[in-house]
Amino acid sequence: MEYVLLFIIGVCATTLGTLAGGGGLISFPAMLIMGIPVHSAIGANKVSNTISSFSSFYHLYRKKEISLKESFWIIPVSLSGGISGGYIASKISAENMSIIAMILLIFAFIASFSGKGNFSGEEPLKMNKFSVPGLFGIGIYDGLFGPGQGTLMLYLFGYLNIAYIQAVGLVRLATFSSCFGAAITYIATGKIIWPLTIALLLGSLTGAQIGVRIAKKLKPQIIKPILRMVTVALIIQIFVDQVL
């Protein structure tokens, strides 16, 4: 029964995470409630996110929704940001990281009402003064703390006027890049409970495929309201975790 529940958690969390980020809102608290040790829960999420993110990216790449030549540079930028964030995290307390997370998410929420960027698809992805620092900064945040990384990245791609379905693929590629190193670390340190991780992974793979298919049918004008709802939920979750 525990494995079935983890499979369902993986489906729900990754479907949401693919569409608007914030999949950790579902998976991480649910695994802790089930009594799974915190490091094993994080490790399971990192392993499942690594593989499911690549699967959804590859699906969109195979359907020619995204170009590897155009997006390949995201990998080193996100990876280096994640490594930098991991180093900085060792110097910052958990309480301060939570405050940083809330500030970033509140800023993204307010900025979403500015009217700039609506996933119109008018612009191609390219390296410029917004995309590179933005992706590197979000990579640092992912290495520092993590929750809301995909949501923040979707805000960035929306601002850059990248088409939504392309933005989904780019976020999944960046998530694969930032989670890959972390997954290896958790595996190497023996924190992974493999039967539970595989159950979550299978659910995540299913959710990733459901998510990309739903994403193709969503109209750009409804994306920002969805992102705002996820952002508010993330802020509430982080605040509650701080209080408790």
UniProtKB/TrEMBL annotation:
<comment type="similarity">
    <text>Belongs to the 4-toluene sulfonate uptake permease (TSUP) (TC 2.A.102) family.</text>
</comment>
<feature type="transmembrane region" description="Helical">
    <location>
        <begin position="97"/>
        <end position="115"/>
    </location>
</feature>
<keyword id="KW-1133">Transmembrane helix</keyword>
<keyword id="KW-0812">Transmembrane</keyword>
<feature type="transmembrane region" description="Helical">
    <location>
        <begin position="71"/>
        <end position="90"/>
    </location>
</feature>
<dbReference type="InterPro" id="IPR002781">
    <property type="entry name" value="TM_pro_TauE-like"/>
</dbReference>
<dbReference type="Pfam" id="PF01925">
    <property type="entry name" value="TauE"/>
</dbReference>
<dbReference type="GO" id="GO:0005886">
    <property type="term" value="C:plasma membrane"/>
</dbReference>
<feature type="transmembrane region" description="Helical">
    <location>
        <begin position="193"/>
        <end position="215"/>
    </location>
</feature>
<feature type="transmembrane region" description="Helical">
    <location>
        <begin position="135"/>
        <end position="157"/>
    </location>
</feature>
<keyword id="KW-1003">Cell membrane</keyword>
<protein>
    <recommendedName>
        <fullName>Probable membrane transporter protein</fullName>
    </recommendedName>
</protein>
<keyword id="KW-0472">Membrane</keyword>
<feature type="transmembrane region" description="Helical">
    <location>
        <begin position="169"/>
        <end position="187"/>
    </location>
</feature>
<dbReference type="InterPro" id="IPR051598">
    <property type="entry name" value="TSUP/Inactive_protease-like"/>
</dbReference>
